[in-house]
């Protein structure tokens, strides 16, 4: 898009065609299963990410009985049907037998939580394999995220080794479970209720070659930012119109001469999308995105404590920070459901025009807010952007 | 907020291993002389003659190191306190600290230079059969004695030892501030905390007046490392060591009145201790949010400000259409930040004075639009603060920080 910031606000919003717009309006629902052994921390992490609990508040949570269903609205046009499945053995057996089809069909994502401190690893893995088998049987396309949780209890020196070891084990078990189901498939193909789409591996294949698993592993802890990293990856793939968001962010970033732009979801402060300039890529902090989520979220807590407003309420609208001749940044409420954080080179003129241009770019991202694209607030942006050019 | 600053001063020195003692202890160092000045001023302040005196121009300009002594029973939490406040250790990790066997000496460089001496609780320095301590070496340069009492434990013995200590000190060093931290109160109910504080206060005062000591400079603080109370208590302790604190406070009060701030704090960035605030009543909530704001800024600075940018990047930014060095494109050399809270649209602002100090203020609702005028006033105050701290700076080099020539209608 245009090299001059003034060009940004004018014209067609990034050439999103009418067809694409029609698709944008569709509300997307995703079934997300949250499973793992009792006490492994499933409900705790859910409360922290989506209900703004503090890590230490999660002590108050009791055991989840059966399945705790919640609908999390994410970015307006994506609804997560979060199935928080109680992990006690009786429940687990129930999911695998009577409720098998009910629980495992149409799953978009399975999040399986392992407690790293668990004594009986063999048994945990056996349960996990059963779950995976059921999942592959009913929802072949589902993505699998395995979180090795409570990593804070492991000594920092050995964390990586412990995680690697467990990850290899889980990967192998997953591959075995999937291979077995694929082998059995010809006999029980009629049981398939979902996923008529072509299978990723030829079912006739009897070799142990790894099927292209949708499996990702993360080491997590509720006491640091690792939780945000895992959940950002989980929701990343679920966000509809991701490609559109990314191209638009990139054009915005180029236009305002930013080094980095992060787009956060409003309540969870998970990073929905990001754009980084070549210079910004040189940042040695690879974990900065989840750190930003963590920092802003805990800041939100401080604010809510100070103002006495509910935790889930919006806590701040504008933030700006100019660090001398090193960098400047600002974070602001962007669309109804998102915050934007822009990190950029120093300079007052640059900073002020970028702020105006970001405000002017809001209408481009209206589609983030939901199925109904409203045309309000669309006016006025062009004028502001025109004023904001540094060379005017 | 340079990230390097934390590494500068925190060099733990353990001098109890005999030969490595740094210098002869009877020698009166320039630091001791400067401390003498600090005491004098403290005493003046106590006698409420503060405003009447003019600072002595002949006072030595060399650096002084006020010393904070941490004492108390073993396992009362002394090392945890110094780790959390001065070394940024997360409170949860203090569980793993080992008990201190020797006097642990830390030196901190900040807007003033401090020494923190952490005494092992099991040693009684006044009555030790094996070793006699050089009292002058320990108490000669002291700024404040912090006595830590574990509120969750039986504190009678601690109180008895504290009384003995006060009586000992009162004879030779009557001007030492004694600060009693009634510690680990996080697990206790509000009522119970106050009961303990009352009980401890009465026990100490009764004992002292029985011995004929009246009005000993003893202060009490309820503290815990799991919330901001420990930082607040330290703030109060440190504030007593600052010469001419009244002027500093007057400067902030004036700023608050002119710009209609609700509350303003001057923070030491590394420790999050506030070294001055305006004259409005203090409340914990505003201190907490300001202190957390400093944290947010530090975190952002670490992620985005602590690595060097490439030369091409700089060349591009300094080229057309800007055509001036980056330093010339910014309004303020140090960090400058603002945030608007959604509730009542109250802004919070932060401005770094130098690499150790930051001014943080909570503003009245709706004043965000007046930021340009407010910034002018802040510029003036920052300039004033810079001049003020020129005295306590270990070395020169901060000159010319304050933007010259800014005229403010409200201040000056």
TrEMBL record, chain A:
Does the entry feature the keyword Cytoplasm, yes or no? Answer: yes
Which SUPFAM superfamilies does the entry mention? Answer: P-loop containing nucleoside triphosphate hydrolases
Q: Name one Pfam family in it.
A: Gtr1_RagA
GO CC terms in record: fungal-type vacuole membrane; Gtr1-Gtr2 GTPase complex; nucleus
Localization annotation: Cytoplasm
Q: Which UniProt keywords apply?
A: Cytoplasm, GTP-binding, Nucleotide-binding
Q: Which InterPro entries would you find in this protein's record?
A: Gtr1_RagA, P-loop_NTPase, RagA/B
Q: Where is this region: Disordered?
A: 182-210
Q: Where is the composition biased (Low complexity)?
A: 190-210
Show the coiled coil region(s).
none
Cell membrane recorded as keyword: no
By its UniProt entry, which Gene3D superfamilies does this protein fall under?
A: 3.30.450.190, P-loop containing nucleotide triphosphate hydrolases
Task: Give GO terms for biological process.
Answer: cellular response to starvation; negative regulation of autophagy; positive regulation of TORC1 signaling
Supply the PANTHER family for this chain: RAS-RELATED GTP BINDING RAG/GTR YEAST (PTHR11259), RAS-RELATED GTP-BINDING PROTEIN (PTHR11259:SF1)
Functional summary from the UniProt entry: GTPase involved in activation of the TORC1 signaling pathway, which promotes growth and represses autophagy in nutrient-rich conditions.
Q: What is this protein called?
A: GTP-binding protein
Q: Which organism is it from?
A: Parachaetomium inaequale
From TrEMBL, chain B:
Q: Which GO terms describe its molecular function?
A: GTP binding; GTPase activity
Please give the GO cellular component terms listed in this UniProt entry: endomembrane system; fungal-type vacuole membrane; Gtr1-Gtr2 GTPase complex; nucleus
**Looking at the record, which segments are called Disordered?**
1-26, 41-65
Lineage: superkingdom? Eukaryota
Gene Ontology BP, a term: positive regulation of TORC1 signaling
Q: Which reactions fall under this protein's catalytic activity? A: GTP + H2O = GDP + phosphate + H(+)
Which keywords does this chain's UniProt record carry?
Answer: GTP-binding, Hydrolase, Membrane, Nucleotide-binding
Q: Where is the composition biased (Low complexity)?
A: 16-26
Query: Which compartment or compartments is the protein found in?
Result: Endomembrane system
Extent of Basic and acidic residues compositional bias: 41-53
Which PANTHER family does the entry link to? GH16429P, RAS-RELATED GTP BINDING RAG/GTR YEAST
Subunit details:
Component of the GSE complex.
Biological role: GTPase involved in activation of the TORC1 signaling pathway, which promotes growth and represses autophagy in nutrient-rich conditions.
Instruction: Give the family from UniProt.
Output: Belongs to the GTR/RAG GTP-binding protein family.
Protein name (database record) = GTP-binding protein
Source organism of this protein record: Parachaetomium inaequale
């Amino acid at each position: 898009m245009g090299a001059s910031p003034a060009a940004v606000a004018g014209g067609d919003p990034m050439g999103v065609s009418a067809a694409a717009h029609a698709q944008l309006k569709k509300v997307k629902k995703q079934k997300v299963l949250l499973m793992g052994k009792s006490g492994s921390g499933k409900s705790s992490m859910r409360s922290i990410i989506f209900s703004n609990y503090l890590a230490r508040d999660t002590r108050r949570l009791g055991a989840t009985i059966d399945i705790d269903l919640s609908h999390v609205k994410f970015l307006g046009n994506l609804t997560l049907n979060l199935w928080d499945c109680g992990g006690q053995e009786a429940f687990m057996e129930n999911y695998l037998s009577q409720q098998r089809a009910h629980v495992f069909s149409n799953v978009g994502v399975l999040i399986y939580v392992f407690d790293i401190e668990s004594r009986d690893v063999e048994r945990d893995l056996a349960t996990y394999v059963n779950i995976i088998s059921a999942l592959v049987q009913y929802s072949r396309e589902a993505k699998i995220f395995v979180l090795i949780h409570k990593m804070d209890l492991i000594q920092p020196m050995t964390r990586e080794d412990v995680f690697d070891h467990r990850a290899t084990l889980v990967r192998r078990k997953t591959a075995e479970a999937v291979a077995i189901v694929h082998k059995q498939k010809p006999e029980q193909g009629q049981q398939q209720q979902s996923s008529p789409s072509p299978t990723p591996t030829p079912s006739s294949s009897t070799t142990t070659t790894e099927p292209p698993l949708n499996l990702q592993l993360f080491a997590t802890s509720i006491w640091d930012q690792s939780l945000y990293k895992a959940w950002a990856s989980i929701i990343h793939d679920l966000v509809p119109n991701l490609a559109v968001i990314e191209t638009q962010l990139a054009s915005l970033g180029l236009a305002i001469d930013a080094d980095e732009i992060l787009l956060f979801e409003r309540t969870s402060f998970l990073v929905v999308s990001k754009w980084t300039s070549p210079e910004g890529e040189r940042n040695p902090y690879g974990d900065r995105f989840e750190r930003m989520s963590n920092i802003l979220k805990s800041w939100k807590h401080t604010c809510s404590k100070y103002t006495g407003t509910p935790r889930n309420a919006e806590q701040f609208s504008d933030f700006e920070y100019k660090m001398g001749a090193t960098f400047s940044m600002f974070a602001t409420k962007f669309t109804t459901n998102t915050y934007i954080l822009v990190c950029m080179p120093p300079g007052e003129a640059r900073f002020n025009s970028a702020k105006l241009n970001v405000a002017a770019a809001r209408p481009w991202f209206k589609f983030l807010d939901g199925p109904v694209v409203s045309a309000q607030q669309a006016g006025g942006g062009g004028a502001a952007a025109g004023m904001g050019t540094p060379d005017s | 907020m340079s990230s390097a600053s934390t590494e500068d001063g925190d060099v733990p020195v353990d001098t109890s291993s005999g030969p490595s003692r740094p210098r002869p202890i009877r020698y009166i160092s320039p630091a001791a002389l400067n401390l003498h000045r600090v005491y004098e001023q403290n005493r003046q302040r106590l006698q409420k003659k503060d405003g009447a005196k003019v600072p002595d121009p002949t006072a030595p300009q060399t650096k002084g190191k006020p010393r904070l002594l941490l004492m108390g029973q073993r396992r009362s939490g002394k090392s945890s306190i110094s780790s959390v406040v001065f070394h940024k250790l997360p409170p949860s990790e203090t569980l793993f600290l080992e008990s201190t066997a020797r006097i642990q000496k830390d030196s901190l460089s900040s807007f003033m230079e401090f020494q923190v001496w952490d005494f092992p609780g099991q040693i009684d320095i006044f009555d030790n059969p094996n070793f006699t301590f050089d009292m002058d070496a320990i108490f000669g340069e002291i700024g404040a004695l912090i006595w830590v009492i574990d509120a969750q434990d039986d504190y009678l013995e601690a109180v008895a030892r504290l009384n003995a200590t006060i009586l000992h000190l009162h004879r030779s060093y009557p001007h030492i501030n004694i600060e009693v931290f009634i510690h680990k109160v996080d697990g206790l109910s509000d009522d119970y905390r106050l009961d303990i504080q009352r009980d401890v206060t009465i026990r100490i005062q009764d004992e002292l007046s029985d011995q004929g000591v009246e009005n000993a400079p003893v202060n009490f603080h309820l503290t815990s490392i799991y919330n901001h109370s420990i930082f607040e208590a330290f703030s109060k302790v440190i504030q007593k060591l600052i010469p001419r604190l009244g002027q500093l406070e007057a400067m902030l009060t004036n700023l608050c009145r002119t710009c209609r701030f609700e509350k303003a704090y001057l923070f030491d960035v590394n420790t999050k201790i506030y070294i001055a605030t305006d004259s409005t009543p203090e409340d914990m909530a505003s201190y907490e949010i300001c202190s957390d704001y400093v944290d947010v800024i530090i975190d952002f600075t670490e992620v985005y400000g602590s690595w060097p940018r490439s030369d091409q990047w700089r060349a591009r930014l300094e080229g057309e259409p800007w055509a001036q060095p980056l330093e010339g494109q910014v309004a303020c050399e140090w960090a400058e930040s603002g945030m608007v809270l959604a509730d009542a649209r109250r802004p919070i602002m932060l401005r770094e004075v130098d690499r150790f100090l930051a001014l943080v203020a909570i503003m009245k609702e709706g004043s965000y639009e007046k930021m340009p005028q407010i910034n002018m006033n802040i510029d003036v105050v920052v300039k004033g603060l810079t001049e003020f701290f020129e005295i306590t700076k270990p070395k020169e080099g901060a000159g010319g920080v304050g933007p010259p020539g800014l005229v403010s209608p409200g201040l000056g």
